[in-house]
Amino acid sequence: MKILVINGPNLNMLGIREPGHYGTETFEALCNRIAQKGVDTGNYITQYQSNHEGDLVDKIQEAYFTGVEGIVINPGAYTHTSIALRDAVSAVRIPTVEVHISDVNSREDFRKVSYIRDVCVKTISGHGTDGYMEAIDFLLEGYKK
Ligand code: DQA
C-alpha cells in the first residue's frame, strides 16, 4: 500500500517544542520510526512536512495524481483554521486519518474545533507519537478488508 504521512506547521520542532504536550521524541526520530514501519510491513510510506498551508494543499493534490492510497495527516494548528486543507482532503477522496499527538479535546477550546475531522475516516488524538503508527495500522487493516 502507498501511504503518505503529512505533518503541518511546527511539527518539525518535535523534541524541542512543549515536551509536556508533545513528548521528547525528535522529529527526525519519529520520521525514522515511520520509515522503519514501512520497511517492516512491506509498504511504501513517504513523508512530507511543511509550515505552509498552500504547500500542504499542493501535497494532498499531488497524492491524487501519484496513486497514494492512504494519508495520515497531522495538520498542526491548521487543523483549527484551514478550510483549504479540508477541501483538499475532500477533493482527492483518499482515505485520510487525522492524528494529534496531544489530546486536543482536553486543551484550549479553540483546539476542540477541527475543520478536517469529518472528511477523515478516523481521528487519533492524545496517543503521543504512537498515534502515527496506529493511523498507519488502521489504513493497512482497512485495505485488507
Ligand atoms: C497538534 C495539536 C494542535 O492544536 C497544535 O497546533 C499542533 C499539534 C498535536 O499534534 O497535538 O501543532 O496537532
The helix content, as a percent range, equals: 25-40%
Number of strands: 5
Query: Which class do the helix and strand fractions yield?
Result: alpha/beta
Side by side, the strands of the main sheet go 2-1-3-4-5
Largest sheet: 5 strands, parallel
CATH class: Alpha Beta
Kindly give the count of domains. 1
Q: Regions with pLDDT < 50 over 5+ consecutive residues? A: none
Mean pLDDT: 97
CATH topology (level 3) name: Rossmann fold
- Superfamily at the CATH H level? Dehydroquinase, class II
Radius of gyration (Å):
14 Å
| Number of H/I helices | 5
Strand content: 15-25%
The CATH architecture designation is 3-Layer(aba) Sandwich
What characteristic shape results from the CA principal axes?
A: globular
Quick recap:
With 145 residues, the protein is α/β, with parallel strands linked by helices. The protein has helices at 19-22, 27-41, 53-65, 83-92, 130-144; strands spanning 2-7, 44-49, 70-74, 96-100, 122-125. The protein starts with a strand and ends with a helix.
Give an overview of the whole structure:
The chain has a single domain, classed as Dehydroquinase, class II (Rossmann fold, 3-Layer(aba) Sandwich). The protein is 39% helix and 18% strand. The chain has 5 helices and 5 strands; from the N terminus they run βααβαβαββα. The protein has a 5-stranded parallel β-sheet with strand order 2-1-3-4-5, with helices on both faces. Strand 3, helix 4 and strand 4 form a beta-alpha-beta unit. The radius of gyration is 14 Å and the shape is globular. The model has no long low-confidence stretch (mean pLDDT 97). Bound molecules: 1,3,4-trihydroxy-5-OXO-cyclohexanecarboxylic acid. The site of 1,3,4-trihydroxy-5-OXO-cyclohexanecarboxylic acid has 10 residues, from loops.
